Amino acid sequence: MITRRIALGLATALGLSLAALPGLAADPLKVGSYPANPPWETKTESGKFEGFEVDIVTEIAKRLGTTVAIEGYDFTALFPATASRRIDMAISSLTITDERLGSQSFTQPYIEGALGLATRTGSDVAKVADIKGRTVGTVATTFAEKWLTERKDELGFKELKTYTTTANMLTDILTGRLDAALNDVVGLRYAATQMKGLDVPDEIITGERFAIMMTKDHPQLAAVNEAISAMKTDGTMAAIFQTWFGVEPAAGSLTLTPLPVPVPTSATN
Question: Which keywords does this chain's UniProt record carry (predicted)?
């Protein structure tokens, strides 16, 4: 009977991955996910995770000869979970930044994101410039928080409130505790279809790029990135995109373009 240790030794000697050996799958990929971020990812009443990025990591695991074990985390907890290697990767429409690349690794991006402005129906806040003198909200540690903080003087908002959950933030908009909120535009537009009285009147193009976050220099980073490239090339990524967003990805977009593992901008200068 072949043991796992012997199999690992054979795989190393032959230059094979353990997942490639017949009948011996690799350990499941441990994935952390913010469970209330539709259509990117959400946890159903039955306890199952589903969404655009859930389909992506599930397909990646299949191509690596394994499965995924997804666990729910608060958004802010995803970062220490990957840094401490409690999980292999995190999904939650996560933006690649130089700061994050200092302590985490990212796969190639597959979506170019944008921020959305959420307000109550009938609000006189119709564009980002209208938040001057207002109380605005966002989810803590997100790209939106950083974007707002860096532009506080320019935008002139009165107060910035941060939240651990999107649901609490949107509830405060509907109850009047917030004048507006900024967050991922895709998630906000989906929420507006589910919450009566919520509007998304403005979109801010930021150039942010969404990807899977992994522990720093994870041993499977290259293999995961290669799987994403293959998914972009063979049409799988486009099919997942259309399933969850209802349209085909634009020609030449990040969703269709294979890319290398990102490095900090400063490292390329």
Answer: Signal
